[in-house]
Structure formats: C-alpha cells, structure tokens
# Entry
Amino acid sequence: MMDNSVRRMPRTMFRTTRSSCSEPVPMEKRHSTKDQIMVWIGFGYVVTGLVVGGQIGGQGGAGLPPLTAFLSVALWDGVFCFS
# Structure
C-alpha cells in the first residue's frame, strides 16, 4: 500500500525570534537612498538588455545564429563605448 502522507519540514527551520519581527533595522545595517536608487537604475539596464537580447535572438529561433549575434553585440559595444 502506498503512503499518501505529506512530508513536512521541521518547524525549527521557519522559526524567527520575536525580536527580529518587532524591532526596526539598525541604522548601521541600512542602505542609503543612493544605493537603493542605483539598484533601480541597474534594474532598468537589465530589462533593456533582456529586450535587446530577445530582439537579436528572435522568437522561436528565427533570430541570428549565436556567433553572429555575439559579433553584432560586440561590434555595437565597441562602437558605443569607444567613440
């Protein structure tokens, strides 16, 4: 006969101390507003890179072959960064 019981994780893995839920983050552990803004700017670059990669790769394999895609990105980066 098959055992249909659900395996549960030990409760100790999910316990948090009461102080970690009720106390604010100490000032020395906080990140500055500038750091948080830089993270959001970086997120914008990631999304843009994904869009460009999707356009180069095409949908369903209809894009450039990998070597040609790499060379086109390298050429554009070379022109864009060193001009």
Helices lie at 18-22, 33-57, 66-81. The chain has a mean pLDDT of 78. The two ends are 72 Å apart (CA to CA). The CA atoms of residues 15 and 61 lie 47 Å apart.
